[in-house]
Amino acid sequence: MADKTKMQELKVGIFVFIGLIILIVFVLMIGDFRLINPGYTFKVSFGFANGIKASAPVRLSGVEVGEVKGIHIDYDEQAKKPFVLVDVWVNKDAKIPMDSRVWVNMLGLLGEKYIEVIPGKNYQHLLREGAIIKGEDPVSIQELTDLSKEIATQVGTTVKGVEVTLEKLNVTLDSLNLIIGNVKEGKGSIGKLFFDESLYTNIDEMFMDLKKNPWKLLYKQKEK
Predict the structure, then answer these.
(1) What are the two backbone dihedrals, phi and then psi, of residue 55, each rounded to the nearest 5 degrees?
(2) Which residues have CB under 8 Å from 128's CB, separation 6+?
(3) Among 46, 64, 114, 117, which residue has the fewest nearby CB atoms (within 10 Å)?
(4) So what's the pLDDT on residue 59?
(5) Residue 43 and residue 127: Cα distance in Å, rounded?
(6) How many angstroms separate the first and last alpha carbons of the chain?
(7) pLDDT over threshold 70, residue 101
(8) In this predicted structure, which of 57-61, 81-85, 122-126, 216-220 has the lowest mean pLDDT?
(9) Cα 56 from Cα 68, distance rounded (Å)
(10) Cβ neighbours of residue 55 under 8 Å, at least 6 residues apart?
(11) For 33, phi and psi rounded to 5 degrees?
(12) Which among 85, 2, 12, 92 has a CA at the least distance from the CA of 44?
């Protein structure tokens, strides 16, 4: 009887042990455990991290190759201002040149934030374990607001300038209309030239006389 009890306990123990092994393997596969998938860690410095969080994905040329392992704030003694260091883990197959571009991107307008890496061209100098690369700071909402205000101010100034120009143009057109009206009514020298028949007749008679007597062009009246 005792032997049967021990045998049953052994079977239960083996069953539980196998179940734990399966559970551990399943957890490791879901969690992409680093012992199964080795890689390396480097740091990205930002002046503004834009809300990036640990466990956020890391994408190289649009392909997920790792994740954010940690975030902490440091202080730049020379610049006298804080900055953010993001610990980034990527798998060993991810070849990232030192001249690559790195920034915080977002899936859609309200989607998940992640680290975007666009590889550079110098593959002779790759990121290694513990390397630090400078990231490109994203534009904050406050900067966008300030930019919008500045654009609105410039547009308002331009509109006012256009209004002043249009006002001056209207004054010019009014003056031109007045001149044209005077010409049509025969007022002024130009109006008389076009519409006063007597002036036209006198000019025509003068040319006819000069045509008949061209010597008058050379004749100089003696002074009295």
Answers:
(1) 75, 5
(2) 40, 42
(3) 64
(4) 94
(5) 10
(6) 167
(7) yes
(8) 216-220
(9) 5
(10) 67, 68
(11) -60, 140
(12) 85
Percent of the chain residues topping a pLDDT of 90: 26
Is the pLDDT at 202 greater than 80? The verdict is: no
**Average pLDDT of the residues in 119-148:** 81
Which class for 220: exposed (0-12), middle (13-18), buried (19 or more C-beta within 10 A)? exposed
| Residue 177 one-letter amino acid | N
CA max distance for the chain: 167
No. of H helices and E strands in the chain?
A: 4, 7
Q: Average pLDDT, stretch 125-151?
A: 77
Tell me the one-letter amino acid at 57: P
How far apart, in Å, are the Cα atoms of 176 and each of 155, 171, 173?
31, 9, 5
Question: What single string gives the DSSP state of each residue in 129-168?
Answer: TT-EEEPBPPPPHHHHHHHHHHHHHHHHHHHHHHHHHHHH
Total-model pTM: 0.51
Q: How far apart are CA 145 and CA 141, in angstroms?
A: 6
The chain-wide mean pLDDT, for the chain, equals 76
Phi, psi at residue 139, to the nearest 5°? -80, 125
Rg (CA), the chain: 44
* Residue 102 token pair: 């790195």
Residues in the chain: 224
Query: How many whole angstroms separate alpha carbon 182 and alpha carbon 4?
Result: 129
pLDDT band at residue 89 using 50, 70 and 90 as cut-offs: very high
